[in-house]
Design brief:
Two copies of one chain form a homodimer. Chain A has helices at about 30-35, 55, 125-135, 150-155, 155-160, 170-180, 185-195, 235-250, 255-270, 275-280, 285-300, and strands spanning about 5, 10-15, 20-25, 40-50, 65-70, 80-85, 90-95, 115-120, 140-145, 165-170, 200, 210, 215-220. With about 300 residues, chain A is an alpha/beta fold. In chain A, the strands form two sheets. Chain A has a nine-stranded mixed beta sheet, sandwiched between helices. In chain A, strands 3-2-6-7 form a four-stranded mixed beta sheet. In chain A, helix 2 links the parallel strand 4 and strand 5. Chain A is globular, with a radius of gyration of 18 Å. The model of chain A has no long low-confidence stretch (mean pLDDT about 95). Chains A and B meet through helix 7, strand 13, helix 9 and helix 11 of A and helix 7, strand 13, helix 9 and helix 11 of B.
Chain lengths: ~300, ~300
């Protein structure tokens, strides 16, 4: 079962206490696709400019990532520059140049229209909706990420889109903002009424929480000796989660829990190096090994 | 196996978004003792003033808490007033009146001197040291909590005391401050060189982390519908942890992990009501039931 991923492909300039890069491939859809491709084939939908070279595209080759949906248009690729605080829990955006991403209007190649597992990364909710509408028949799982920008500025469109969504994958703050509830159990109940029946809350180094009905599952963040660059961690979590779920092929309590562990694994690998550097070298064997270490991290007996 | 607890007994004035109390029994040693008493008999060492009535002492009666070490002296009991922020993650101290606690000099009754499990709650490190020195022979476990105040102002005395400590129970921020390391794996290695061979990091709603050598165990915070007052959560965690460990009677990987779960259980019960209100009514059966719910919260299969 493949995963359809739609979202941003970008160049990032990153600065953390551990270093600086002037221009590295990034964007939610890039991180998501690479992370998900460890589990299943991926179909990528996005847009890049003329400055996106064959060398940039190398990250997708040799992985099971179909780039027929990666449109190349006149202009420059989306560019983002950010700097992280000393403890890396805060970041300031230094530049956002939307460029070709400003007119992004995702079009699914014919070959993508039978997709059954769809991840809508953080873009305008109307575009997210249009992607779901282009799929033939009823997908098995539609998962969506969004951010404060859309929650504040396009609440109507977001609510419209959420009706089509099975799994909402956001962070604590976004869950609180979207629901108007500080307590996350209360927030989940509000969100379940908007459409998604499953809520996944990403918590960075603290791992993630899965809520479904009254059921709650938590997964810790893998403790790391080196955290160099938090960029893409949430998207890699989402990619690992969605990839593992599609690999399982069905949504059960067991497949969701395993997917949470794989999400946490991929999210934490991402932060060990700058940009996609860790994922470039990551071996499937390492993914499995680290996932198994979550047993030791969480097992107890009363 | 009983637990010896030394620390503050206080009256608190508390204000949270969910209410306000003018004067309620509190103090680290109080929370710790009550929480630990669900698992083993407790021996309490502390000091109160003349305003501490038989009614106040009622919380200790009917539980297995020996108060022969609770000194009553002329003057007023330690008083603390604090207000929590809207999200309850911040608090401001409105008043600290040390009163009789200013001259606290813990003295172990003869009957306490054979104690084998000792919890030194947050007080001056020289006093913590004096307690260990009053114990006959070598205790099985000395656990210690401290805070930024002592880390900053009495670093020499704290280091001296830490040499006698097996388990350090602090929060993220304190671990970082004490070690000078932001990364908690690095912080643990620094702390292990100071004496403690086990580090327990309390993370509030995010649960807690246990580090011992290279081994790491995480326990989530139990998700709650109602969080009314965070006061005493960390001390109840410590009490549950230490009580369960003493009940096991020995320090093994398995007993430490189970103790972490019981710590998390007790810490989260505490915040459901103001002050000690939830613990006053809490039944041993509820403690066991909630601990078992941590299986569902954490179990997965790859």
């Amino acid at each position: 079962m493949s995963v359809l991923v739609v979202g941003s492909v970008a160049f990032d300039a990153l600065e953390t206490p551990f270093g600086k890069v002037e221009r590295t491939l990034g964007g939610a859809a890039t991180y998501l696709s690479v992370a998900a491709s460890y589990f299943v084939p991926v179909r990528l939908v996005g847009v890049v400019g003329e400055d996106f070279s064959a060398r940039d595209a190398a990250i997708f080759r040799g992985r099971r990532i179909d780039t027929r949906g990666l449109e190349r248009v006149a202009g420059k690729t989306f560019f983002w520059a950010g700097r992280y605080s000393e403890d890396m829990n805060q970041r300031v955006t230094l530049a956002t140049e939307l460029n070709v991403f400003a007119d992004f209007n995702p079009k699914l190649p014919e070959a993508y229209r039978d997709s059954r597992f769809i991840f809508l990364a953080n873009i305008h909710p109307a575009l997210q909706e249009s992607v779901v509408k282009q799929v033939n028949g009823r997908p098995k799982v539609v998962a969506l990420d969004t951010m404060n920008h859309w929650i504040e500025r396009t609440p109507g469109e977001l609510r419209q889109t959420l009706k089509l969504v099975d799994i909402l994958v956001i962070n604590d703050e976004e869950a609180r903002q979207l629901s108007g509830k500080h307590n996350l159990l209360h927030a989940a109940q509000v969100i379940f009424r908007l459409g998604p029946k499953i809520l996944v809350i990403k918590r960075g180094e603290f791992g993630a929480v899965l809520m479904r009905g009254k059921d709650v599952f938590t997964v810790p963040g893998f403790p790391l000796h080196d955290v160099r660059d938090p960029t893409g961690a949430g998207d890699c979590f989402a990619g690992g989660f969605m990839g593992a779920l599609a690999q399982a092929g069905r949504v059960t309590d067991a497949s969701l829990r395993a997917a949470m562990v794989y999400g946490s694994v991929m999210g934490r690998f991402a932060v060990e190096r700058f940009g996609l550097d860790r994922l470039r070298q990551l071996k499937p064997r390492e993914v499995k090994q680290r996932a198994r270490r979550f047993y030791g991290l969480t097992r107890f007996r009363l």
